[in-house]
Amino acid sequence: METAKTTTDESDVGIFCYISQLPGFRGILKQRYSDFIVNEVDNDGNVVHLTSLEVPPEIAETVDGGEKNVSNQIGKSYASEIESFRSLAGDSDALRLEAFLTQVTTESEDSTSISPILLSPSSDKANRTAMHNFFKENFKFLVTDTVDGPDASSKCIRVRLNSGGHNNGGRNSKKRRDRSDKPFDSRGSSHWPERLGKFLRFHLYKENKDTQEAIGLIGKMLGIQPRSFGFAGTKDKRSVSTQRVTVFKQHASRVAALNERLIGIKVGDFCHVKEGLLLGQLLGNRFTVTLRGVIADSEDTIKGSADSLGRHGFINYFGLQRFGSGSVPTHLIGAALLRGEWKSAASMILDPREGERDVVRKAREYYKESDDIEGTLRQLPRHLIAERAILQCLKKCPGNYLQALKAIPRTLRMMYVHSYQSYLWNHAASARVQKYGTHQVVVGDLVYCKRDDTARETSGVNLECEDLSYDEVDDCSNLDETPGTYVPEWKSTLVKAVTAEDISTGNYTIDDVILPMPG
């Protein structure tokens, strides 16, 4: 069986040029994941570290007050509300609700034992909307959503105890099975305290896990979808990394409690903010790198290379990590997406590839030979988020590869396209250096305008970010995750083409030269 090329070299992704003419040296990068330490740098220049696992007292007090109000609501009598509900839904559903409320009242200390209830099937959307609104107005501690009914024309309303606000219910495995593995769009408490920002921001520390895998695991434990989270950038899997993450309407105490169960992941430094994080909302990352097994013709070569790096810098290429660690480079998948070749893109994500563990290789080969989605999902490890998302949607929408690709979390899906953009940028950077070298600015080079520059600017950076809605989603085609890319304020500076006058005045140097990202 044919498999893809095992490794990607620099030349495969457009890296052809180097500033230093020294012979250089070789070494092993990331022999241990602890050899690569990444700390995010926020927009204010602060290096992100995990400093505390505790919930700040001011946050804990606000949450305690909110949960007392919920407990008071659960303890009261709802006889009049049940009668009003009877006129809206009928006797049988009123009896179901009454029994459910009795169970909530008597077992409120152990909400994990309370299973959701399904109300009678209905094809009347207006009536279902009225019932949803009734629950929102009268039962703040309950959550409703809509699931498929017994036939194509009907739907059922599902009622459960709000996992966001009372005893953390609704996140155990039995309830997930009760929901037939359908993602429940529980993004937080409906009775959120007014003085708290709607997003909980925390620092995520992880070892040897990529960002999507870590967030997916936290979301699974909380019983919420990955789309509830926001982050400024993905960090390397084979590393020890610390970054900021936001999650919509979750209490810090609930997230902090996960530290006892998480392995290789810690969360802390909690605070509430008004806005969630978007991709690109960072100045960069600070790296602490250890090289092992260094091979050089002399120690002087190592010292000379390090000195050259410090004095002259380097061409700021997108490195190999941008193109994935697997044998199928992510930029090839991005190119297929841009060409609209949905089936080809899905196949590249799913097909067998070299260099993977036996359990993954066998699962990929099994699907390639059998097209058995159920059997493949049973074999495929859960950390393969993109592969599992595609297969789960193909199971519901056979042959619809576009919808299957949309089921991949948006931040991960966009990485394929970003990878192809990076591939094109690398080639453009190499072409510029090959033609004009790295010693001087030439007419036509692009630079950011300096404040004292009165020359005509050629363009400005303008990006309209998508509007993020936290409304409910029901099908796999709408599982878009985090909104679009953020443009830092310093990147909104106007750009100009260098003129002969600029060169004669020495206003710009090679360090000022930039290249636009295609797309």
Automatic annotation (TrEMBL):
Organism listed in the record: Manihot esculenta (Cassava)
Organism ancestry: Eukaryota, Viridiplantae, Streptophyta, Embryophyta, Tracheophyta
Protein name: Uncharacterized protein
